[in-house]
Amino acid sequence: MKVSLEFSGGAELLVDGQKNHDVTLPDKEDGSKWTVKDLLAWIKDNLIDERPELFVQGDTVRPGILVLINGTDWELMDGPEYELCEGDAFVFISTLHGG
To answer: Which of 31, 68, 80, 83 has the fewest C-beta atoms lying within 10 Å of its C-beta?
Structure first.
């Protein structure tokens, strides 16, 4: 399954400063569908090299990170339980900034 990921607002610093990622997710061994919860674990294991706690907290994103699925707030689309579709576009925007 192919999806696109965009990191901005500082979240891109967690993925080597690269804002856009087109990724192909492998089929799951049990044949189940990918959820955003699964995607977050995949991002943590495959894209984030240091300090994953700045992105994920448990099986969801850390407070202060806005998640959009195809331009819509993920809270309106079942949040972490949303089942991914081919070609989905995910945007992760950090809203927390030091001062």
So the answer is: 31
Q: Which two tokens stand for residue 2?
A: 């192919």
Range of the domain at 37: 2-94
Residue 86 tokens read as 């081919």
- What's the structural domain count of the chain? 1
Q: What is the pTM of this model?
A: 0.93
| Residue 99: band (very low, low, confident or very high) from pLDDT cuts 50, 70, 90 | very low
Q: What is the pLDDT of residues 47-78, one digit of tens each?
A: 998 899 999 999 899 999 999 999 999 999 99
Number of Cβ atoms within 10 Å of the Cβ of 52: 16
CATH number assigned to the domain comprising residue 12: 3.10.20.30
